[in-house]
Amino acid sequence: MRVTSVQLAMTDQLKEINVEHALGLIDQAPPSDLFLLPEIWPCGFFSFDRYKRDSEAIDGPIVTAFKAAARKRKCHIFMGSMVERDGSHLYNTSILLNPTGEIAAHYRKIHLFGYQSQETAILEPGEDVVVADTPWGKSGLSTCYDLRFPELYRRMVDAGATFFLVASAWPKVRLDAWRLFNRCRAHENLAFLISCNCAGANQGKTYAGHSMIVDPLGQVLAEGTAEEEWVSAEIDPDQVAAVRQDFPALEDRRLV
Question: Which of 77, 203, 224, 242 sits at 20 to 30 Å (Cα–Cα) from 218?
Fold first, then answer.
């Protein structure tokens, strides 16, 4: 199967312009079974003053537009995250669409980022670990800062995950940590990890880019630059079972 991260370059544009741009990049991209988008790309992660104004219900215009794109391309789209409005509460919510345009799963970010950030002050944390059934295997959903918490990924593995999909708005200043955590979370769990990070800059903060596709042995199959681009690779989903059989480290876990 082919997977493609659409590494959007953030700019301080209106939500409608960013949505149109993201849809255009998916429409122009080479064929892929799965497309990914980054974190809170409709307004930009650091545009905290826009979170409430740009928020939408999960059945709002943004998701509706991407449902049509998934049907048109006959593919899965992990449409990254947006600010979801549910009653009086706001969440950082990632959404996985299937080729018929239905929501296969959605995940509310559990680990909100409070360091030099207003995310924890504005948004509510999610509570549920989410693993979705997909044609290529069970896929665990996560968002950005989650990468620093390996116990979340082990819980996804315990729920059957063989793939991790990560939407992110990781800043350039911590690029080394980003590259490390992408490889670690894949290799320690003997799973594929596919991440989509923002490029460009938003509210004066520069993003790292460097979206990654990492195999179960921690080998980087594809990695982006700091620019807007497609980051794509052909992968074999059966590699997870083969690696776990050959090197059954997960079976040697001891909970003490």
Answer: 77
